[in-house]
Amino acid sequence: MFVCYMGELKKTPLYDEHVKLGAKIVEFGGWSMPVYYSTLIDEHLTTRAKAGLFDICHMGEFFIEGNGAFKLIQGVITNDLSKLSDGGAFYSCICLENGGVADDLFVYRFNSEKFMIVVNAGNIDKDFRIFSGPKDGLDVAVVDKSNQTAKLDVQGPNAQEILQKLTEVDLSSLERFCFVEGKVNCVDTIISRTGYTAEDGFELYFDASRAVEMWNKILEVGSEFGLKPVGLGARDTLRIEACYSLYGHELTEEINPLEAGVGFVVKLDKDNFVGKEALLKIKEDGLKRKIVAFELIERGIPREHYEVYKNNEKIGYVTSGTMSPTFKTGLGMAFVNPEEASVDNEIDVKIRDKFYKAKIVERPIYTFNKKIP
User: In this structure, is the dihedral angle defined by the CA atoms of residues 276, 277, 283 and 286, taken in order, positive or negative?
Assistant: First the structure.
Protein backbone atom coordinates (compact mmCIF):
# COMPACT_ATOMS: atom_id res chain seq x y z
CA MET A 1 0.00 0.00 0.00
CA PHE A 2 2.74 2.46 0.94
CA VAL A 3 5.40 3.04 -1.68
CA CYS A 4 8.52 5.14 -1.89
CA TYR A 5 8.06 8.46 -3.65
CA MET A 6 10.96 10.40 -5.11
CA GLY A 7 10.44 14.12 -4.68
CA GLU A 8 9.07 16.61 -2.20
CA LEU A 9 6.07 15.27 -0.34
CA LYS A 10 2.80 17.18 -0.30
CA LYS A 11 0.92 17.86 2.92
CA THR A 12 -2.79 18.26 3.57
CA PRO A 13 -4.01 21.32 5.54
CA LEU A 14 -4.24 19.01 8.57
CA TYR A 15 -0.64 17.83 8.64
CA ASP A 16 0.27 19.79 11.77
CA GLU A 17 -2.84 18.48 13.55
CA HIS A 18 -1.78 14.92 12.82
CA VAL A 19 1.67 15.62 14.26
CA LYS A 20 0.09 17.13 17.40
CA LEU A 21 -1.99 13.97 17.82
CA GLY A 22 1.16 11.85 17.67
CA ALA A 23 0.31 10.18 14.37
CA LYS A 24 2.78 7.92 12.63
CA ILE A 25 3.40 9.73 9.34
CA VAL A 26 4.26 7.84 6.14
CA GLU A 27 4.61 8.72 2.49
CA PHE A 28 1.64 7.72 0.35
CA GLY A 29 1.46 8.56 -3.36
CA GLY A 30 3.55 11.68 -2.94
CA TRP A 31 1.83 12.83 0.29
CA SER A 32 2.83 12.83 3.96
CA MET A 33 -0.14 11.11 5.56
CA PRO A 34 -1.01 9.58 8.96
CA VAL A 35 -0.97 5.78 8.89
CA TYR A 36 -2.25 5.48 12.48
CA TYR A 37 -2.63 7.49 15.68
CA SER A 38 -3.10 4.75 18.30
CA THR A 39 -3.00 1.39 16.52
CA LEU A 40 -4.42 0.16 13.23
CA ILE A 41 -6.55 -2.46 14.98
CA ASP A 42 -7.98 0.01 17.50
CA GLU A 43 -8.89 2.52 14.79
CA HIS A 44 -10.40 -0.16 12.57
CA LEU A 45 -12.61 -1.59 15.32
CA THR A 46 -13.56 1.88 16.54
CA THR A 47 -14.87 2.71 13.05
CA ARG A 48 -16.83 -0.54 12.92
CA ALA A 49 -18.35 -0.12 16.38
CA LYS A 50 -18.53 3.66 16.92
CA ALA A 51 -17.08 6.21 14.50
CA GLY A 52 -13.87 7.29 12.80
CA LEU A 53 -12.71 10.62 11.33
CA PHE A 54 -10.52 10.48 8.23
CA ASP A 55 -8.41 13.18 6.57
CA ILE A 56 -8.97 12.65 2.82
CA CYS A 57 -7.92 16.15 1.74
CA HIS A 58 -5.39 14.68 -0.70
CA MET A 59 -8.15 13.52 -3.06
CA GLY A 60 -8.91 15.56 -6.18
CA GLU A 61 -12.08 17.51 -6.98
CA PHE A 62 -13.02 18.86 -10.40
CA PHE A 63 -16.07 21.02 -11.06
CA ILE A 64 -17.49 20.70 -14.56
CA GLU A 65 -20.11 23.27 -15.55
CA GLY A 66 -21.94 24.50 -18.64
CA ASN A 67 -24.58 23.20 -21.03
CA GLY A 68 -21.97 20.86 -22.48
CA ALA A 69 -21.04 19.36 -19.11
CA PHE A 70 -23.34 16.34 -19.38
CA LYS A 71 -22.13 15.41 -22.86
CA LEU A 72 -18.48 15.80 -21.90
CA ILE A 73 -18.71 13.56 -18.83
CA GLN A 74 -20.96 10.99 -20.53
CA GLY A 75 -18.34 10.52 -23.24
CA VAL A 76 -15.56 9.91 -20.71
CA ILE A 77 -17.01 7.74 -17.93
CA THR A 78 -18.16 4.13 -18.22
CA ASN A 79 -21.33 4.58 -16.14
CA ASP A 80 -24.50 6.15 -17.56
CA LEU A 81 -24.88 9.75 -16.42
CA SER A 82 -28.50 9.84 -17.63
CA LYS A 83 -29.38 7.52 -14.73
CA LEU A 84 -28.07 9.96 -12.12
CA SER A 85 -30.59 12.38 -10.62
CA ASP A 86 -29.93 15.85 -9.20
CA GLY A 87 -28.51 15.46 -5.70
CA GLY A 88 -27.22 11.99 -6.48
CA ALA A 89 -23.74 10.49 -6.68
CA PHE A 90 -22.40 7.33 -8.23
CA TYR A 91 -19.23 5.36 -8.74
CA SER A 92 -17.65 4.98 -12.17
CA CYS A 93 -14.45 4.32 -14.05
CA ILE A 94 -12.70 6.15 -16.84
CA CYS A 95 -10.95 3.88 -19.29
CA LEU A 96 -8.25 4.06 -21.91
CA GLU A 97 -8.97 3.04 -25.50
CA ASN A 98 -7.72 -0.49 -24.71
CA GLY A 99 -10.23 -0.87 -21.87
CA GLY A 100 -7.70 -0.48 -19.07
CA VAL A 101 -8.76 1.72 -16.15
CA ALA A 102 -7.28 5.21 -16.09
CA ASP A 103 -8.97 5.85 -12.74
CA ASP A 104 -12.03 5.08 -10.63
CA LEU A 105 -13.99 8.03 -9.32
CA PHE A 106 -17.26 9.43 -7.97
CA VAL A 107 -19.57 11.74 -9.91
CA TYR A 108 -21.85 14.19 -8.08
CA ARG A 109 -24.73 15.78 -10.00
CA PHE A 110 -26.01 19.17 -8.83
CA ASN A 111 -28.05 19.68 -12.01
CA SER A 112 -27.73 18.99 -15.74
CA GLU A 113 -25.11 21.73 -16.07
CA LYS A 114 -23.07 21.32 -12.88
CA PHE A 115 -21.13 18.28 -11.65
CA MET A 116 -18.32 17.48 -9.23
CA ILE A 117 -15.86 14.69 -10.00
CA VAL A 118 -13.83 13.20 -7.14
CA VAL A 119 -10.66 11.42 -8.27
CA ASN A 120 -7.72 9.63 -6.69
CA ALA A 121 -4.88 11.82 -5.46
CA GLY A 122 -2.22 10.17 -7.58
CA ASN A 123 -4.25 10.62 -10.77
CA ILE A 124 -5.31 14.26 -10.46
CA ASP A 125 -3.11 15.59 -13.27
CA LYS A 126 -3.86 12.66 -15.60
CA ASP A 127 -7.60 12.82 -14.98
CA PHE A 128 -7.71 16.58 -15.46
CA ARG A 129 -6.09 16.15 -18.88
CA ILE A 130 -8.66 13.48 -19.76
CA PHE A 131 -11.65 15.63 -18.84
CA SER A 132 -10.14 18.76 -20.36
CA GLY A 133 -9.38 17.09 -23.69
CA PRO A 134 -12.68 16.44 -25.50
CA LYS A 135 -14.18 19.92 -25.13
CA ASP A 136 -14.24 20.82 -28.84
CA GLY A 137 -17.37 22.81 -29.60
CA LEU A 138 -18.82 22.33 -26.12
CA ASP A 139 -19.85 25.14 -23.80
CA VAL A 140 -18.18 23.73 -20.71
CA ALA A 141 -15.62 24.68 -18.08
CA VAL A 142 -13.48 22.12 -16.28
CA VAL A 143 -11.94 23.55 -13.10
CA ASP A 144 -9.56 21.74 -10.77
CA LYS A 145 -10.40 22.82 -7.21
CA SER A 146 -8.40 20.10 -5.48
CA ASN A 147 -6.11 22.50 -3.63
CA GLN A 148 -9.02 24.69 -2.50
CA THR A 149 -11.21 21.80 -1.30
CA ALA A 150 -10.92 19.93 1.99
CA LYS A 151 -12.46 16.47 2.39
CA LEU A 152 -13.21 14.80 5.71
CA ASP A 153 -14.97 11.47 6.16
CA VAL A 154 -17.01 10.60 9.25
CA GLN A 155 -17.74 6.89 9.16
CA GLY A 156 -19.35 4.40 11.53
CA PRO A 157 -22.62 3.62 13.35
CA ASN A 158 -22.48 6.89 15.31
CA ALA A 159 -21.62 9.12 12.35
CA GLN A 160 -25.10 10.56 11.86
CA GLU A 161 -25.60 11.33 15.54
CA ILE A 162 -22.26 13.15 15.68
CA LEU A 163 -22.73 15.26 12.57
CA GLN A 164 -26.33 16.10 13.41
CA LYS A 165 -25.01 18.15 16.33
CA LEU A 166 -23.11 20.34 13.86
CA THR A 167 -25.73 20.95 11.18
CA GLU A 168 -29.37 21.92 10.78
CA VAL A 169 -29.66 19.65 7.76
CA ASP A 170 -31.88 16.67 8.57
CA LEU A 171 -29.35 13.92 7.98
CA SER A 172 -31.92 11.18 8.59
CA SER A 173 -33.60 12.20 5.32
CA LEU A 174 -30.38 11.96 3.31
CA GLU A 175 -30.32 8.63 1.50
CA ARG A 176 -27.26 6.56 0.62
CA PHE A 177 -25.44 7.90 -2.47
CA CYS A 178 -27.17 11.26 -2.17
CA PHE A 179 -25.78 14.64 -1.15
CA VAL A 180 -26.97 18.06 -0.07
CA GLU A 181 -25.43 21.50 0.33
CA GLY A 182 -25.67 22.95 3.82
CA LYS A 183 -23.66 24.26 6.73
CA VAL A 184 -21.61 22.08 9.06
CA ASN A 185 -20.11 23.97 12.00
CA CYS A 186 -21.25 27.16 10.18
CA VAL A 187 -19.11 26.22 7.14
CA ASP A 188 -20.65 25.84 3.67
CA THR A 189 -20.34 22.11 3.01
CA ILE A 190 -21.31 19.45 0.50
CA ILE A 191 -22.60 16.61 2.71
CA SER A 192 -22.58 13.24 0.96
CA ARG A 193 -23.87 9.98 2.42
CA THR A 194 -21.07 7.90 0.96
CA GLY A 195 -17.81 6.38 2.14
CA TYR A 196 -15.07 3.81 1.73
CA THR A 197 -15.50 1.69 4.87
CA ALA A 198 -18.75 -0.31 4.35
CA GLU A 199 -20.22 1.56 7.31
CA ASP A 200 -22.89 4.23 7.27
CA GLY A 201 -21.26 7.62 7.10
CA PHE A 202 -20.67 10.93 5.40
CA GLU A 203 -18.08 12.63 3.23
CA LEU A 204 -17.74 16.38 3.71
CA TYR A 205 -16.38 18.79 1.08
CA PHE A 206 -15.67 22.42 2.00
CA ASP A 207 -13.18 25.27 1.76
CA ALA A 208 -9.68 24.06 2.63
CA SER A 209 -9.03 27.18 4.72
CA ARG A 210 -11.56 25.86 7.27
CA ALA A 211 -10.07 22.37 7.53
CA VAL A 212 -8.35 22.71 10.91
CA GLU A 213 -11.37 24.16 12.72
CA MET A 214 -13.71 21.58 11.14
CA TRP A 215 -11.39 18.68 12.05
CA ASN A 216 -11.04 19.78 15.66
CA LYS A 217 -14.74 20.53 16.10
CA ILE A 218 -15.76 17.09 14.84
CA LEU A 219 -13.22 15.47 17.16
CA GLU A 220 -14.56 17.52 20.07
CA VAL A 221 -18.23 16.77 19.43
CA GLY A 222 -17.55 13.17 18.51
CA SER A 223 -15.53 12.33 21.60
CA GLU A 224 -18.64 11.54 23.67
CA PHE A 225 -19.74 9.10 20.95
CA GLY A 226 -16.42 7.27 20.85
CA LEU A 227 -15.14 8.88 17.64
CA LYS A 228 -11.39 8.74 17.02
CA PRO A 229 -9.11 9.96 14.22
CA VAL A 230 -8.28 7.14 11.83
CA GLY A 231 -5.23 6.80 9.58
CA LEU A 232 -4.56 5.21 6.23
CA GLY A 233 -3.73 1.84 7.77
CA ALA A 234 -7.25 1.20 9.02
CA ARG A 235 -8.73 2.86 5.95
CA ASP A 236 -7.03 0.10 3.96
CA THR A 237 -8.12 -2.81 6.17
CA LEU A 238 -11.69 -1.47 6.27
CA ARG A 239 -11.92 -1.31 2.49
CA ILE A 240 -10.30 -4.73 2.03
CA GLU A 241 -12.95 -6.34 4.28
CA ALA A 242 -15.57 -4.62 2.13
CA CYS A 243 -13.79 -5.73 -1.08
CA TYR A 244 -13.59 -2.15 -2.36
CA SER A 245 -11.08 -1.63 -5.14
CA LEU A 246 -8.01 0.57 -4.64
CA TYR A 247 -6.44 2.12 -7.71
CA GLY A 248 -3.02 0.60 -8.25
CA HIS A 249 -4.15 -2.72 -6.78
CA GLU A 250 -7.45 -4.05 -8.18
CA LEU A 251 -7.57 -1.38 -10.90
CA THR A 252 -4.76 -0.15 -13.16
CA GLU A 253 -4.23 0.83 -16.78
CA GLU A 254 -3.48 -2.86 -17.40
CA ILE A 255 -6.66 -4.10 -15.68
CA ASN A 256 -10.12 -3.63 -17.19
CA PRO A 257 -13.24 -3.06 -15.06
CA LEU A 258 -14.97 -6.26 -16.23
CA GLU A 259 -12.29 -8.57 -14.86
CA ALA A 260 -11.88 -6.37 -11.78
CA GLY A 261 -15.45 -7.03 -10.63
CA VAL A 262 -16.76 -3.52 -11.22
CA GLY A 263 -18.58 -4.31 -14.45
CA PHE A 264 -21.74 -2.92 -12.86
CA VAL A 265 -20.44 0.57 -13.68
CA VAL A 266 -19.80 -0.29 -17.33
CA LYS A 267 -22.91 0.49 -19.38
CA LEU A 268 -22.17 -0.94 -22.80
CA ASP A 269 -25.65 -0.07 -24.06
CA LYS A 270 -25.11 3.69 -23.76
CA ASP A 271 -23.63 5.95 -26.45
CA ASN A 272 -19.94 5.78 -27.20
CA PHE A 273 -17.41 6.41 -24.44
CA VAL A 274 -13.65 5.98 -24.25
CA GLY A 275 -12.79 2.28 -24.19
CA LYS A 276 -16.26 1.02 -25.16
CA GLU A 277 -15.19 -0.90 -28.26
CA ALA A 278 -12.36 -2.62 -26.40
CA LEU A 279 -14.67 -3.57 -23.52
CA LEU A 280 -17.25 -4.98 -25.94
CA LYS A 281 -14.58 -7.20 -27.45
CA ILE A 282 -13.27 -8.26 -24.04
CA LYS A 283 -16.79 -9.27 -23.01
CA GLU A 284 -17.34 -11.13 -26.29
CA ASP A 285 -14.02 -13.00 -26.09
CA GLY A 286 -14.44 -13.90 -22.42
CA LEU A 287 -12.43 -12.84 -19.39
CA LYS A 288 -8.94 -14.23 -18.94
CA ARG A 289 -8.96 -13.61 -15.17
CA LYS A 290 -11.42 -12.68 -12.45
CA ILE A 291 -11.17 -10.94 -9.12
CA VAL A 292 -12.19 -13.01 -6.09
CA ALA A 293 -12.30 -12.60 -2.33
CA PHE A 294 -10.64 -15.23 -0.17
CA GLU A 295 -10.10 -16.13 3.48
CA LEU A 296 -7.16 -18.14 4.77
CA ILE A 297 -8.03 -21.44 6.44
CA GLU A 298 -4.61 -21.54 8.07
CA ARG A 299 -3.22 -18.66 10.09
CA GLY A 300 -1.17 -16.27 7.97
CA ILE A 301 -1.16 -12.79 6.49
CA PRO A 302 -1.58 -12.47 2.71
CA ARG A 303 -0.03 -9.46 1.02
CA GLU A 304 -0.10 -7.80 -2.38
CA HIS A 305 1.69 -9.74 -5.17
CA TYR A 306 1.73 -13.05 -3.26
CA GLU A 307 1.13 -15.90 -5.72
CA VAL A 308 -2.00 -18.05 -5.69
CA TYR A 309 -1.88 -21.76 -6.54
CA LYS A 310 -4.21 -24.72 -7.17
CA ASN A 311 -2.79 -28.25 -7.19
CA ASN A 312 0.74 -26.79 -7.28
CA GLU A 313 -0.06 -24.76 -10.40
CA LYS A 314 0.03 -20.97 -10.28
CA ILE A 315 -3.43 -19.57 -11.07
CA GLY A 316 -3.13 -15.93 -10.02
CA TYR A 317 -1.90 -13.39 -7.50
CA VAL A 318 -3.09 -11.39 -4.50
CA THR A 319 -4.04 -7.76 -5.21
CA SER A 320 -4.74 -6.75 -1.59
CA GLY A 321 -4.47 -8.71 1.64
CA THR A 322 -4.43 -8.22 5.40
CA MET A 323 -5.04 -9.77 8.79
CA SER A 324 -8.66 -8.76 9.33
CA PRO A 325 -9.25 -6.97 12.66
CA THR A 326 -12.97 -7.76 12.39
CA PHE A 327 -12.81 -11.47 11.54
CA LYS A 328 -9.35 -12.14 13.01
CA THR A 329 -8.19 -14.09 9.99
CA GLY A 330 -6.12 -13.45 6.91
CA LEU A 331 -8.19 -12.36 3.93
CA GLY A 332 -8.00 -10.36 0.75
CA MET A 333 -8.65 -10.17 -2.95
CA ALA A 334 -6.89 -11.89 -5.82
CA PHE A 335 -6.97 -12.34 -9.58
CA VAL A 336 -7.34 -15.99 -10.56
CA ASN A 337 -8.08 -17.98 -13.69
CA PRO A 338 -11.83 -17.83 -14.43
CA GLU A 339 -12.29 -21.59 -14.06
CA GLU A 340 -10.98 -21.40 -10.49
CA ALA A 341 -13.06 -18.38 -9.43
CA SER A 342 -16.08 -20.18 -7.92
CA VAL A 343 -17.10 -19.60 -4.30
CA ASP A 344 -15.90 -22.32 -1.85
CA ASN A 345 -13.07 -23.35 -4.17
CA GLU A 346 -9.98 -24.12 -2.06
CA ILE A 347 -6.74 -22.50 -3.15
CA ASP A 348 -3.22 -22.01 -1.79
CA VAL A 349 -1.59 -18.66 -1.13
CA LYS A 350 2.20 -18.70 -1.19
CA ILE A 351 3.46 -16.68 1.77
CA ARG A 352 7.23 -16.53 1.58
CA ASP A 353 8.16 -20.15 0.82
CA LYS A 354 5.14 -21.90 2.30
CA PHE A 355 1.65 -22.62 0.96
CA TYR A 356 -1.29 -21.59 3.13
CA LYS A 357 -4.72 -23.06 2.47
CA ALA A 358 -7.48 -20.58 1.65
CA LYS A 359 -11.06 -20.61 0.41
CA ILE A 360 -12.76 -18.32 -2.10
CA VAL A 361 -15.72 -16.54 -0.48
CA GLU A 362 -18.50 -14.26 -1.63
CA ARG A 363 -17.76 -10.58 -2.19
CA PRO A 364 -18.08 -8.42 -0.20
CA ILE A 365 -16.77 -10.15 2.90
CA TYR A 366 -18.13 -7.41 5.17
CA THR A 367 -21.20 -5.18 4.87
CA PHE A 368 -22.43 -2.70 7.44
CA ASN A 369 -25.48 -4.78 8.35
CA LYS A 370 -23.33 -7.76 9.38
CA LYS A 371 -22.64 -8.14 13.07
CA ILE A 372 -19.04 -8.07 14.26
CA PRO A 373 -18.10 -11.52 15.58
Answer: negative
